[in-house]
Structures are given as structure tokens and as C-alpha cells.
Amino acid sequence: MDLDQLKSLIDQMPQADKRGMYSQIDKDKVEQAAAEVFKAGPEAWAMLIDQVAEPDKGGDYQARYLLHALGLHVSKLKDAEQRKKFTAALCKPLGGDKPKTVQAFLIQEVQYYGAADAMSVLARLLGDEDLCDPAAMAMLAISPDSAALFRQTLPSAKGRCKRMIIQCLGRLKDDAAVGEIQKSASDADVDIRIVAVWALANIGDAGCADLILKAAQTPAGWERVQGAKACLMLAEKLTAAGQKDAAARLTKYLQETRTDRTEKYVADAAGRIR
């Protein structure tokens, strides 16, 4: 398949109406075009990927549509080898010179259709402020065993990348990351402190109680609110795990300190955890 043939197939994709919606879709035509590109092999897939441009330049939405349809075609085949090849084609430009907006779109396609082979490539993007969020989301979607990769990158991470990695480790409830996350609970960045405290509470480690109580002791403001929420979350998890004495320490603190009418709802919530 040459470029002219590929562009002919791209032109067959639905065109967006004035609202930006695809209201006229010929499903059979789309599926046939995707099948033809698939049959042409990885070189054609790479050519299609090259047709994806930055959103502000416009004119590439049909190429994006066909690439997405190609991914759906590959996934329906349930052929592990072909899926690996398609994953490799999507991953090849990642970390390279293509615009970050294009790479973010390709990462999203990896999230939908990629194989586990993409994990190491995605992990290398966790330090890129423009790509760490989509890369992390893709990793979570592709493999439930992604905690080790997040854990390895946390010590060197900074800014929004650090926040995202901590959030992912918290979502994965990764016990092995507790020690490293605890360091971030006293970070100079308030957003990192908040997400670190949330992650520790969600992991449910009783050994983090003192640190989470400290977060709840901050003066009035968003961090204090989030610290109280973390106390409640950890108390609920400890109660469910049968560690009622440890949970009672957290709820008692909230009941004794949230006496102002603006915070009484927190004390009431704490009193319902038994």
C-alpha cells in the first residue's frame, strides 16, 4: 500500500458535522478500510500513524478515526502476535520528536488496544510532565501488575509526575511503596503532600496513622479538609480489617477536634465508624 492508497482510505472515514459530531457513519465502509490497512501490514500502520497531526493544525481527524478503527480490528482478531505488532507500531514514536499532543493520542490508543509489551516504553514517559498522565493511565489499564514500575520511578520523580505516580501507587494499594510515599507526605508541594496522605490512607497501613493525623492537624484550608478525609478513610479500612483500636484513635481525634460548626460533619462521620 502506498501513501495515495492510504489517503484514499482515510478520505472514506466519517466527516465531522458543524458540531464536531460524527452523525453519518458507514460502519461497513469503516471496517473494510481498517481491514485493508491491517492487511497491508506494519509499514502501512506506520504511514497511518504519520498522518496524525497536532490538533491545532486540524485536518487529521479522519486519520485518527481510521487508526482507532484499525486498533478495534486488531483487538477483535484476538491474535496475540498481531496485537504485539500493532503495539510496537504505536509505541515506536513515543519519546521521540513527534509533538506531545500526537504522542498523547497514541498513548491513548495503546491504552485501548496495546499489549503488555508497551509497559516498559510507557514507564519511560512517567518523567515527562506532558505525557506522564496518559502514560500512567495506560499502564493501569493494561496491567494490574504495574506497581513495580511506578515504584521504581517514584524516587526520581518531580512535580505533577510525582503526584501522578503516587496516586497510581495508592490506587494499586501497593504496600511495598509505603516507605517511599511517606517521604512525600512532608514535601514542600502541598498537592504532593495531599496525594501522598490519600495514597497512604487508601493502602490502609496502620503504621501511617501518626503521619495522617499530622496532616489532619494543619490549619484551616484544603489540606486540613483532605487530612480529615484521609483519617476517615484509614479508620474505615482499619475497622474493616479488625483493627478497631487503631481506628478508634483516629475517630476520637476527629471527634475531639472538629467541634466548630463548619467541621462538625467530620466529627459526625467519625462517630459512625464502628
Structural notes for this entry:
This protein has 274 residues and is mainly α. The protein has a domain at 1-142: Serine Threonine Protein Phosphatase 5, Tetratricopeptide repeat. The protein has 16 helices and no strands. It has helices spanning 3-10, 27-40, 42-50, 61-77, 80-91, 100-113, 119-123, 132-142, 147-153, 159-171, 178-184, 190-203, 209-216, 222-240, 244-257, 264-271. Helix 3 (42-50) runs parallel beside helix 5, helix 9 (147-153) runs antiparallel to helix 10 and helix 12 (190-203) packs parallel to helix 14 (222-240).
The gist of it:
The protein is an all-alpha fold. It is built from 16 helices and no strands.
Outline the fold blueprint.
Blueprint: H1 3-10, H2 27-40, H3 42-50, H4 61-77, H5 80-91, H6 100-113, H7 119-123, H8 132-142, H9 147-153, H10 159-171, H11 178-184, H12 190-203, H13 209-216, H14 222-240, H15 244-257, H16 264-271
Helix pairs in contact: 2-4, 3-5, 5-6, 6-8, 8-10, 9-10, 10-12, 11-12, 12-13, 12-14, 13-14, 14-15, 15-16
